[in-house]
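ok so for the tutorial part 2 we go from a plain amino acid sequence to predicted structure tokens. step 1 is just haveing the sequence, like this:
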Amino acid sequence: MDINNSSLAYKIEVGENGNGSFGGEPYAIEYEIINLDSLNDEISKGLAEVDERLDTVEAKIDYLNDKIYNLTNHADALDYSAAVISGIIAGMIDSFFVGEFSLEQAREWGTEKVNGFVTKAAKVTGYKGDDLGGAIKHLEKYGAPSDSLMNVFGGAAQHHLRDFAHHPTPVGLFFSMLTQFTEKAYGTNTAGSFCIADITDKTFIGSDLPHKILFGFIYWLLHMASDMAGSSGAIGRNSGGTGLPGPLLSLAKELSALPIFGKGNEENAQGLRLYISRLFNGTALGKRDASGKLIEPLRFDLRAELGVIQQIGKQAVPVIINEVLVRGFYFIRRLIEELRKKPSSVDDIDWKKTLPFKNRTIVRMLTISMGTFTAVDLADAAIRSVATAGATPAALGKFALRVNYVGVGRFVVAVGTDISMGIKKQSAERERMAARSEQLMLLDAKVYYKQAGMWIAAKDAGQAIDKLCEMAPKVAKFWLDSAKDIREKMDNITPQTIENAEKKNPGLINDILSILED
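step 2 — the prediction. this is what the tokens look like for a chain of 518 residues:
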């Protein structure tokens, strides 16, 4: 066996000329030894980097564990039972106290609120009476420039809808100010297409910037107040007046004027525009006789939209009660569980586990409770509609009016949230798996660095042993030479030598004997 040593590489050749055999096959062994002394700094630096990265990965895993816990449904049979009971209670409240949706009642409620608002607005500007007609007449002095173009926008019955400056919305305010600076009115013509017309009566067009702001903003607000309850003449005739379109109908009218709605299908666009107009003038939702003749119009204007919001608010009451019951049960039960752990103080309670928000368990409970509520609501609506109208097409309309659409919407949201949390949980679990894989690789890397340090220590120990082995023969030789020299010198000591020593050093012999005896 020959060994060829270079600074870093070693080669062992087996057999003659470096050839040997193993299982009948010749072989040679080559290996490389790295100078570990030069790796001390690299190993320390590498260990520090690995430890830093491990801390980051472990913190991420802890965060993902908390996230996955919140995204996991921990509800049990008691939680599900409470959710079902809550849904039944809310459904009964909806059945007996909310009743069916009524657009007529909605408009009546909205009319009452609008009339009260108009009277208060008139009193703010100096009106002294309490009569609605007088209040409207008082506010009508705050005119609008586009009122002079009533015929361009379809006459008294439609110009509030078609003239965009008569929309009680931010868009209406924008066009009111635009009219002040351009002296033009903006809206749709009788065909529903966007049009621009020159203002003919410029009484309410400001001559300078302050007046333009006064007419375009302050007068616009007061003019909206005067128009929302109808004209003073219509109030005197008890006709209710034209009123203003609400925000929803205003937005629908503005969007219908965009070219994109008529592009490629002008017939459908015209149908949409016609239906919006019919909603505003009351022919779309009005009462009709058996032959289909309109008996009583029902305008879907600002007053009706306000009433619809009130009706939706009524439908929201049992939904809110259900939320309170379910979330309250969740909080109380989890708080009791925390108190059973006998915390020494309030600070020892894990309040995160008691809060009925942002976790999969409460979402699942709400999904079940809202599903139960919706089932009770739909069953009640079906029974009452059939009992009232029989097995006729009219029963379908009655059924639609009794459905709690707020509850249906809340149920859909709960289901969507539950599914979304399930998807997020799967994503977090995959992320945690990747983080744990990285953690294992970092731990492996740390082991390798430790092994490298071990080999350095082993090398140092080997060097110490080599030095010991090297010094041992030298020490032995030194000891043997010293012993031989002592023996030779002892042999050279004669009685004459002792006598001479005693003469030159009196008492020396006795001192030596005394030392040897001790």
